[in-house]
């Protein structure tokens, strides 16, 4: 089955600087890669996703890049703010019809230092 | 839309007792997932349903765990008998298309 590795496990960044979180996946048939943000006491919330027909996607201060050849994808947060502090999860899913299950990475605890 | 609704938010039970967790997916979402989250193992998929039919239950730990989806608006995850190692946060999520899961707020289960 799919295996998703995520690094780093913890990341501290000065407010205003950029943060980058990286994930690798094992199944070359995977074609959907979402990122989730989880705040304390809440469920994970989708913040951005990318499909394998594109290499990069941006939404205001966040962006995701995908390298299918190397089987890795990254989350970039620019101009970080205190409210960006949370745990971030990457995930991957293959494209089989009727298969909607996501495999998640182990998470990155991001702390923004004011 | 109220989102995915889970109940209870917190559950404390004694070892050996039966525990039932409940989930109401978003209306119109035809896939529902149960995940378990622990510090040691992260987010683990337990089981998922498509159009109320269980598709993959390979993540269910053992026979003590069972899940049902009697209709499109309700699902339960039952643990009988419960054990301390079952202590975790259990999440339900739903999606209409396989893209963009919406998670509930979770049920924090503590088995003492």
| Helix segment tally of chain B | 0
**Shape type of chain B:** globular
Helix count of chain A equals 0
Order of helices and strands of chain B: EEEEEEEEEEE
| Low-pLDDT segments, ≥5 res of chain B | none
- Proportion of residues in helical segments of chain A: under 10%
Strand content of chain A: over 45%
**In terms of per-residue confidence, which ranges of chain A show pLDDT below 50 for 5 or more consecutive residues?**
none
- Tell me which protein chains meet in the greatest interface and how many residues each side has: A-B, 22 and 22 residues
Number of β-strand runs of chain B:
11
Mean pLDDT of chain B, to the nearest integer, reads 94
Helix/strand structural class of chain A: mainly beta
Explain this structure:
The complex is a heterodimer of chains A (114) and B (112). Chain A is 0% helix and 57% strand. Chain A has strands spanning 4-7, 10-14, 19-25, 30-38, 45-51, 56-59, 62-67, 72-77, 86-94, 103-104, 108-113. The model of chain B has no long low-confidence stretch (mean pLDDT 94). In chain B, strands 2, 4, 5, 6, 9, 10 and 11 form a seven-stranded mixed sheet that branches. In chain B, strands 1-3-8-7 form a four-stranded antiparallel sheet, with no helix packed on it. The A-B interface holds A 32, 34, 36, 41-46, 49, 89, 93, 98-107 and B 4, 31, 33, 42-43, 45, 48, 50, 55-56, 91, 93, 95, 98-106.
Reconstruct the topology from this structure.
The complex is a heterodimer of chains A (114) and B (112).
Chain A: E1 4-7, E2 10-14, E3 19-25, E4 30-38, E5 45-51, E6 56-59, E7 62-67, E8 72-77, E9 86-94, E10 103-104, E11 108-113
Parallel strand pairs in A: 2-11
Antiparallel strand pairs in A: 1-3, 3-8, 4-5, 4-9, 6-7, 7-8, 9-10, 9-11
Chain B: E1 5-7, E2 10-13, E3 19-24, E4 31-38, E5 42-50, E6 53-56, E7 65-71, E8 74-79, E9 88-95, E10 102-103, E11 107-111
Parallel strand pairs in B: 2-11
Antiparallel strand pairs in B: 1-3, 3-8, 4-5, 4-9, 5-6, 7-8, 9-10, 9-11
């Amino acid at each position: 089955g799919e295996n998703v590795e995520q690094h780093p496990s913890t990341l501290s960044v000065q407010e205003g600087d950029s943060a980058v979180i990286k994930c690798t996946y094992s199944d070359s048939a995977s074609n959907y890669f979402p990122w989730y943000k989880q705040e304390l006491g809440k469920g994970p919330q989708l913040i951005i996703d990318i499909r394998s027909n594109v290499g990069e996607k941006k939404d205001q201060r966040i962006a995701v890049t995908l390298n299918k050849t190397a089987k890795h994808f990254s989350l970039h947060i620019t101009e970080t703010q205190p409210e960006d502090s949370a745990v971030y999860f990457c995930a991957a899913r293959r494209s089989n019809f009727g298969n909607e299950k996501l495999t998640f990475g182990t998470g990155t605890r991001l702390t923004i230092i004011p | 839309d109220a989102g995915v609704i889970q109940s209870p938010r917190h559950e404390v039970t004694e070892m050996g007792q039966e525990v039932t967790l409940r989930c109401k997916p978003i209306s119109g979402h035809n896939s529902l997932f149960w995940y378990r989250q622990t510090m040691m193992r992260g987010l683990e998929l337990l089981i998922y349903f498509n159009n109320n039919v269980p598709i993959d239950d390979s993540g269910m730990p053992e026979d003590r765990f069972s899940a049902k989806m009697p209709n499109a608006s309700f699902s339960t995850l039952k643990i009988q008998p419960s054990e301390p190692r079952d202590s975790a946060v259990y999440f339900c999520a739903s999606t209409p298309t396989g893209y963009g899961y919406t998670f509930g707020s979770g049920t924090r289960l503590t088995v003492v």
